[in-house]
Specification:
The protein is α+β, with helices and mostly antiparallel strands and about 375 residues long. It has helices at about 5-20, 35-45, 55-60, 65-80, 125-170, 175-205, 215-235, 255-270, 310-315, 330-340, and strands spanning about 20-25, 30-35, 85-90, 100-110, 115-125, 210-215, 235-245, 250, 275-290, 290-305, 345-350, 355-365. Helix content is about 45%, strand content about 25%.
């Protein structure tokens, strides 16, 4: 008959090596006498550096509160003979990688019901935590979209009424200067209504992509600069434009690109207190991806404003992050989403005190339009 002790050892070893949790077996002095392979993977510590030591000896010098809590949990299990409550704690491996761990301690008894060991089962909750963050982020963006959709509906109706009222008054005005003021008001109302409609279109996920020659980028910027001409003159900001004249095509939604360029230009103007420059360029570039080489249109908007430090630059595309009083922190986030819907990408480089450059890459379409 097979030796049951040997068989028990084999079963124990097979089980603890197959489960997806770290297993640590401690003796009554809380010295480690066994760890499984998952322990080494999560804690990033070789078992040779753990065996014969207590947690206080082999755990890295992370938060002392957590080390004390781990030791207290094991000792309480040993003294009470009962399994511990679940204990969640962050853990920084020797390589500096952060894990979120969930642990429980279980007493191990001999045939005489004497406690001989304490076993810790530790599960890595890091992937679950990351998923929870993504779900929360998606929920925030979904709530924002719902709010924007409702707000757009509320704004759109009175805008239509205002435009009709102004159109009725238009014929009764005689002074040229009054007509000019009314024209300006009507243009601003049209811009507001276009913005509102873009929110409504965004909710319905409608895109109006159309193949156009790359010269459309210059046309869109002309419209944006006309809209901003008053602010540019007031702040003495010089605009330098350099656009490619090559006969190539891109697929674009003109209204959405207008929104993107307008938002970036407004950011650039606000970053320049007075007297500065904004350089706008559009040129063809080659991009390598593995062995494949593709062409893209690179659109760059570079300003000589105050720039951003590293901390603010890394958060620039994060929804709801803003450094401007009264800002929503949604401009660049929405812009990047629009560019991604074009199959492109958006990047930002900035140095505090030296200005900011936003780079937009749009894929070149097959054919010439």
């Amino acid at each position: 008959m097979e030796n049951l002790t040997v068989l028990d050892d084999q079963v124990f070893y097979s089980v603890v090596q197959s489960i997806n949790s770290a297993v640590i077996l401690h003796d009554r002095q809380l010295k480690v006498i066994f760890v499984n392979a998952v322990f080494e993977a999560i804690f990033d510590i070789p078992k040779e550096d753990v065996l014969g030591k207590s947690p206080m000896e082999f755990l890295p010098d992370f938060d002392a509160i957590h080390r004390d809590a781990i030791q207290a949990r094991l000792r309480k299990t040993l003294e009470s003979g009962k399994k511990s409550p679940y204990h969640e704690f962050p853990y920084y491996s020797p390589a500096g990688k952060l894990h979120y761990l969930l642990a429980i301690s279980i007493p191990v008894f001999d045939p005489n019901e004497e406690i001989t060991h304490v076993m810790s089962l530790i599960h890595d909750m890091t992937p679950q935590k990351a998923l929870e963050k993504e779900v929360l982020k998606a929920a925030k963006l979904s709530s924002l979209a719902d709010m924007a959709y409702s707000l757009a509906h509320e704004i759109n109706n009175p805008l239509t009424g205002i435009k009709l009222g102004l159109a009725t008054l238009y014929g009764g005005l005689k002074k040229p200067e009054n007509i000019q003021v009314l024209d300006s008001v009507m243009k601003d109302l049209n811009r507001i209504q276009n913005t509102v409609r873009s929110f409504l279109r965004e909710k319905k996920n409608q895109t109006r992509l159309k193949k156009c020659m790359i010269g459309i980028v210059g046309d869109i910027f002309d419209d944006v600069l006309f809209h901003l001409s008053g602010q540019l003159d007031l702040q003495h900001i010089f605009i330098k434009k350099t656009f490619s004249r090559e006969s190539r095509a891109i697929v674009v939604d003109r209204e959405r690109l207008y929104e993107v360029f307008l938002n970036i230009m407004l950011n650039a103007i606000q970053a320049i207190s007075e007297k500065g420059e904004i350089h706008i360029t559009a040129k063809l570039v080659s991009t390598e991806s593995g062995e494949a080489v593709s062409e893209e249109l690179l659109i760059s908007i570079a300003d000589t404003g105050i720039g951003m430090d590293e901390a603010h630059r890394t958060l620039a595309f994060k929804p709801f992050h803003t450094t401007r009083e009264g800002g929503t922190g949604l401009g660049l986030s929405i812009c990047r989403k629009h560019i991604e819907q074009h199959g492109g990408r958006m990047e930002l480089t900035s140095v505090s005190g030296q200005g900011t450059m936003v780079s937009i890459y749009l894929p070149i379409a097959d054919g010439e339009g």
